[in-house]
């Protein structure tokens, strides 16, 4: 079993919770979010700030949104991952449908990109399929 240092993440999480400056954000945008260290198969953040790129699927209000985490690990064989294009044209990224998550806008760290309308439409269709 992998060791996870939850204490390091907990101290950062307290600061994120106190955050008052909430950035403006919209559907289709790709942001780095502070995902932290999570339990079991839930996606973790990486690096010192525990960041993970996400696609904003649906903004609910200025405080929350639904997001799909992105991974660079090739998941072409998985029905729960959809390849999307962002940032570097020659680098593959995969949106994890199984990790659809409600996220507080306090977790938003840095806007990186705008997903194409075609990729966004495909993601929405795949999410609908997942729940039908």
Low-confidence stretches: none
CATH architecture: Roll
Report the average pLDDT across residues. Answer: 83
| Number of self-contained structural domains | 1
CATH class: Mainly Beta
Q: State the order of secondary-structure elements, H for helix, E for strand.
A: HEEEEEEEH
Number of E-type strands: 7
Helix content: 10-25%
Strand content: 25-35%
> How much is the radius of gyration in Å?
15 Å
What would you call the shape? globular
Characterise the protein shown here:
The protein is α+β, with helices and mostly antiparallel strands and 132 residues long. It has one domain (25-130): Roll (SH3 type barrels). The protein contains 2 helices and 7 strands; from the N terminus they run αβββββββα. It has helices at residues 6-18, 117-130; strands at 29-34, 51-61, 64-71, 81-84, 93-96, 101-104, 108-114. Strand 2 and strand 3 (64-71) form a beta hairpin. The chain is globular, with a radius of gyration of 15 Å.
Task: Write a concise synopsis of the structure shown.
The chain is of the alpha+beta class and 132 residues long.
């Amino acid at each position: 079993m992998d060791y996870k240092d939850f204490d390091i993440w907990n101290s950062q999480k307290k600061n994120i919770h106190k955050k008052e400056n909430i950035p403006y954000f919209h559907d289709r945008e790709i942001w780095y979010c502070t995902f932290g260290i999570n339990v079991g198969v839930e996606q973790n953040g990486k690096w010192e700030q525990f960041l993970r790129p996400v696609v904003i699927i649906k903004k609910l209000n200025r405080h929350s949104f639904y997001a799909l985490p992105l991974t660079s690990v090739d998941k072409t064989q998985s029905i729960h991952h959809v390849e999307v294009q962002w940032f570097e044209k020659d680098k593959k990224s995969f949106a994890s449908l199984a990790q659809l998550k409600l996220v507080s806008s306090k977790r938003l760290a840095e806007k990186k990109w705008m997903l194409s309308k075609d990729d966004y439409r495909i993601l929405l269709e795949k999410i609908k399929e997942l729940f039908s």
